[in-house]
Amino acid sequence: xxxxxxxxxxxxxxxxxxxxxxxxxxxxxxxxxxxxxxxxxxxxxxxxxxxxxxxxxxxxxxxxxxxxxxxxxxxxxxxxxxxxxxxxxxxxxxxxxxxxxxxxxxxxxxxxxxxxxxxxxxxxxxxxxxxxxxxxxxxx
Length: 140
Prior knowledge:
The protein is an alpha/beta fold. Helices cover about 35% and strands about 25% of the residues. The model has no long low-confidence stretch (mean pLDDT about 90).
């Protein structure tokens, strides 16, 4: 299953970008990263039906194990692509939230978008490591 991170704004050259790249390289599943303009710009059309996950302050706070199990279930159901959307500074609209398959939050605190992107890549690496049975998924 393709793990596709779609984020508003450019990550550029930054410590957060380095961290994002570091974890993205470790992900053992097919992985793609798409950047969209801060405002406007449409999501790329999926080639096949996909699942949509929004990083959103109103989302569920789930453990790394629970996150891994969601990905495992979708993979085993034959889902070809899961898209992870990171919105602009004003977040996602109600329509996007309604259409999403899952809303997740990295805690109740507000995180900078670049940091959220790096945290998502780390959690995707951790989830795929859990599913591969690697004992080192508990290390960072």
